Give the backbone structure.
Amino acid sequence: MSRWTPRSTVATIVYDGARFLLVEEYDRLSRPDQPVLNQPAGHLELGESLISAAERETLEETGWQVQVEAYLGLYINIAPGDITYHRHCFIARPLEQIPDAPLDEGIIGPRWLTWTEILAAEKQGLLRSPMVRPCCEDFLNGQHFPLSLIRDFRCS
């Protein structure tokens, strides 16, 4: 008997006071020839904490080291093919851009966009995920939770 499991992912809201750090990338599954925009995001790896995953994915996709400071929320998306994603979104502070940092395959590079530019990209169908706008919007509306909301118990 097979068991249904959602795909656990992380995403990071990085905001500099006027702009959001996004990733311009190719989505090989839905639009291999059209670059799209997304928050730094990716899958949780075996044995990795959610916070570590968020910081790692941000570095791998943007070349920016960040410090996760708060939990924004859990965003659930049922994608085509009935694939369910549980996106744990975090709020992080930018620390340092690493010059010539190697970026993941398919990544064009980091892009700093204003809220207005994100809304325009959404109208043009350039956001990779339907969760990009709601995450940014919730952040702008002041939503945040302490990291202590997450209790990480590891079996030894």
Observations:
- The longest strand covers residues 64-79.
- The longest helix spans residues 50-62.
- The mean pLDDT is 93.
- Helices lie at 50-62, 115-123, 132-140.
